[in-house]
Amino acid sequence: MHELTAGITKANTGLDGISWNILGQTYVPKSLNEQSFSWHATFPPGTFVPPHIHPTQDEFIYMLDGRLDLVLDGKEFVATTGDLVRLPMNQPHGIFNKTDQTVKCFFWVTPTRRLYDLFWAIHSMKEQNPPDVVALSAKHEVMFLPPPPGA
């Protein structure tokens, strides 16, 4: 695990030049240590992260530009530029860009646990098909939920 060092991760760059493709979104890691992990995320129109749970992490999303529709513990919410989304561990949540605009936001989790490794693993998949992503995620402490009846 990286040790946190003082410094600046410049705009449009990630740690070690990393940029991941995760379910059609671009994630650029900005900081990493055992206690926390952060990344810049770009959600093109129509992309989403299906409902899931982080049983070992609290997650946060700061909205830089755009609108996300969220399902938090079964309830629908909207987050727009300047909002902070708080996702306590064990809280089911799904994140959706239902607009025709690209969304930019800043995520972080605490503690890091296995999420950094999961993003590398998903990015490295030859094809990010849902059953394989769900199985891989479960091995990295992220539990995707089954789709609602009739979906």
Show the helix and strand layout:
Elements (H helix, E strand, L loop, with lengths): L19 E3 L2 E8 L4 E7 L4 E6 L4 E8 L1 E6 L2 E6 L3 E4 L5 E4 L6 E8 L4 H9 L6 H9 L4 E2 L7
Antiparallel strand pairs: 1-2, 2-3, 3-10, 4-9, 4-11, 5-8, 5-10, 6-7, 6-9
How is this structure best described in words?
The protein has a single domain (16-142), classed as Sandwich (Jelly Rolls). It contains two helices and eleven strands; from the N terminus they run ββββββββββααβ. The protein has helices spanning 115-123, 130-138, and strands spanning 20-22, 25-32, 37-43, 48-53, 58-65, 67-72, 75-80, 84-87, 93-96, 103-110, 143-144. The chain has a six-stranded antiparallel sheet, with helices on one face. Strands 7-6-9-4-11 form a five-stranded antiparallel sheet, covered by helices on one side. It is globular. The mean pLDDT is 93.
Low-confidence stretches: none
Question: How many angstroms does the end-to-end distance come to?
Answer: 39 Å
What's the gyration radius in Å? 15 Å
Q: SSE order, as H and E?
A: EEEEEEEEEEHHE
- Helix percentage range: 10-25%
CATH topology tier name: Jelly Rolls
Q: Categorize the overall geometry.
A: globular
Average predicted confidence as pLDDT: 93
How many extended strands? 11
Q: Which strand order do you get reading across the main beta sheet?
A: 1-2-3-10-5-8
* Tally of contiguous helical segments: 2
Q: State the CATH superfamily name.
A: Jelly Rolls
* CATH classification class: Mainly Beta
Quaternary state reads single chain
Task: Please outline the major beta sheet.
Answer: 6 strands, antiparallel
Structural class: mainly beta
Number of domains: 1
